[in-house]
Every structure is written in structure tokens, then in C-alpha cells.
Amino acid sequence: MVSADEFSQMALSLPGVYTAPHFERTAYRTKKRIFATHLGKQNTVNIKLNPVEQSTFCDIGGGAVEAVNNKWGLQGWTQFNLQQVVPQILADALAVAHEMAQ
């Protein structure tokens, strides 16, 4: 389990990351793009991965990680349930997404 504060600390510890409002979510972004969003009321995080990485994280996520169930999921957006996800898996996914957002 990862708390909302722990997730925020993980994301903001990456170089050049800042937050901004994004509809009903909080976006975590670099100068170039959003790479993660947090929806507090559902305690979920969406992270932008490429299709291969998305498949890998879904496979190792033990039910806590799944492709977003719409066209965004086909573009690599992947949902992580903060109540269930292993912290290291979340940290690894954030690092991958952050690197792609540079």
C-alpha cells in the first residue's frame, strides 16, 4: 500500500517534476508533458507507459495494475491502485514514465 502523500513524494523527488491541476486530478509533469495523474477520491494513479512497459507492469502488478479501460489505455495510460500496489513497482513505473517525459 502507498498513501497519497507517499506517492506525491515519490513523483516530486524526480528531477524537474511539478504538480498542476488536471480536471478532477492532480497532474505530475515535466516541462514537456504530464506523465502521471492522481485521483484522490479513488486513490488511484494513472501513469503513461509505452505498450510493452504497460504489459510488463500489468503482469507483475498482481491485480493492482491495469490498462486504463478506454482509448487512453490503448495509448499506454496505466492505472495503479494505491491501496494494493507494491511500492517498488510504483516507483519503477514512475521512473520509466518520467524518463519518457523528458
Task: Give structural notes.
β2 and β3 form a beta hairpin. The protein is globular. It has one domain (4-100): Aspartate Aminotransferase, domain 1 (Alpha-Beta Complex), CATH 3.90.1150. The chain has a six-stranded antiparallel beta sheet. The protein has 102 residues and is α+β, with helices and mostly antiparallel strands. The protein contains four helices and six strands, in the order αββββαβαβα.
Number of helices: 4
Oligomer: single chain
Helix and strand run: HEEEEHEHEH
Task: Name the poorly predicted regions.
Answer: none
Tell me roughly what share of residues is in helical segments: 25-40%
Assign the structural class, choosing from mainly alpha, mainly beta, alpha/beta, alpha+beta, or little secondary structure: alpha+beta
Shape: globular
What's the main sheet like? 6 strands, antiparallel
Q: Tell me how many strands there are.
A: 6
Reading side by side through the largest sheet, how are the strands ordered?
Answer: 1-2-3-4-6-5
Taking all Cα atoms into account, the compactness measure Rg is 12 Å
Q: In percent, how much strand structure appears in the residues?
A: 25-35%
Our measurement of the CA-to-CA distance between the termini, rounded to an integer number of angstroms, reads: 28 Å
Query: CATH topology, anyone?
Result: Aspartate Aminotransferase, domain 1
CATH architecture: Alpha-Beta Complex
Mean pLDDT: 97
Count structural domains: 1
What is the C-level CATH assignment? Alpha Beta
